[in-house]
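Lab notebook, page 48
Experiment: co-folding of the full assembly
Goal: obtain a model of how the components sit together before planning crosslinking
Operator: M.T.
Materials (sequences as entered):
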Amino acid sequence: MSERLERRYRRLLRLYPKAYRRERGAEILATLLDAAESGHPRPLRREVAALVVSAMRVRFGAVAGSPGQVWLSALRVAVLVLIAHATAQSAVHAIRAVGAEILMVRTYPLTALGHPAAALAGVAALMAIGRGRYRLGVALVGLAFAAAQWAMSWLPIEARPALGEFWQLPLAAAVSVPLVVCRPASGRRAMAWLLAIPLTAAVLPTAFDEVGWGLYLPLAVAAGCLAWSALDARAAIVGAVLLIGASMSTLSYVLPGWVDAMSGENPVLLSAYLAAAAVSVCVGAVLVRLRART
Amino acid sequence: MREPTYFILAALQDQPLHGYGIMSRAEELSRGRVKLATGTLYAALDRLTGERLVRVVDEQVVNGRARRYYELTATGLEALRAEAERMAEAAKLVTEHPNPRRSARRPGQPGVMPA
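Observation: model returned without errors.
Model output:
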């Protein structure tokens, strides 16, 4: 029985990161076995659930600290996700333009070069902010936005805010303000943030699905973030920022001159975005406060 | 301060203890209310070590099992005492309150109003 239990606990301990396991693994295992052999053993299910949650928190870097530090860290992640999403969208445009030129399906104007330029500036911004160089990061976000606008210059300027891809970079710049002022610590693996580009392309809307079911993706992603906030309170705040970004383009439809273009479901969608953003912010704020207690 | 944290710190008042020692002492002191799961205990110990409220004082291998002993730091003791005083103050509001309703209900006695 004891050997079987030990094997089971050893398997579960693999959920912790290797470095943590090396430091703590033997000690945690000893405590688990001591507790199991005691007169008052904890229910196995409870021990397993606590181990899984604790391991996930260690592995996915839930930040400990004052509420202010956790909020700054959450805003930093939100900025990185917004930049990754904008970069993914520019990359999608660039790939589409290059593909069409190669296949000679369609000829693009010179301004289409703005798409790869925006994607490159986005990659540079992602790395700068990932490394904690916030001023440089915001400057690169500005550059990426200018390049993306140049690429979209075929569309009248007043029409662009209604595009799903318009708001990520301005919002990233706005959310970066507290980062530039307070300079939160950066993570050790800044390069890993580049993986967020294909990830956001996969789970958030891009130019390919602008008016289709892609509009519901931010809600699905925010719901996922809300679930993830059980492990890391920052996730709810990141989800809220993503929803605010999605709301802004939908809100632009409601502006004068765009009512005609508004499809029937948009007011409902906008309300859903805003309601979900409000819920996410509240959940995030409560969780950050709860976790900050000793 | 959360209740489990309070009893983890209280468990370490007398002497340094290892993981299971902390769990059983916290359960005993809280009269069975705080039953820490191992994963929860180590998450709390990581946090408390980071905040310098507890520290590791000794490491041993007993019967082939690794044991690390934790003790309360001066900051930890201060935080624990501050929390105990806060709770005692809060408890006084109720325990030292003259209860007019109870005395009013006694048969054959007139109710006493607080001054």
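Interpretation: The mean pLDDT of chain B is 87.
Next step: discuss with group before ordering constructs.
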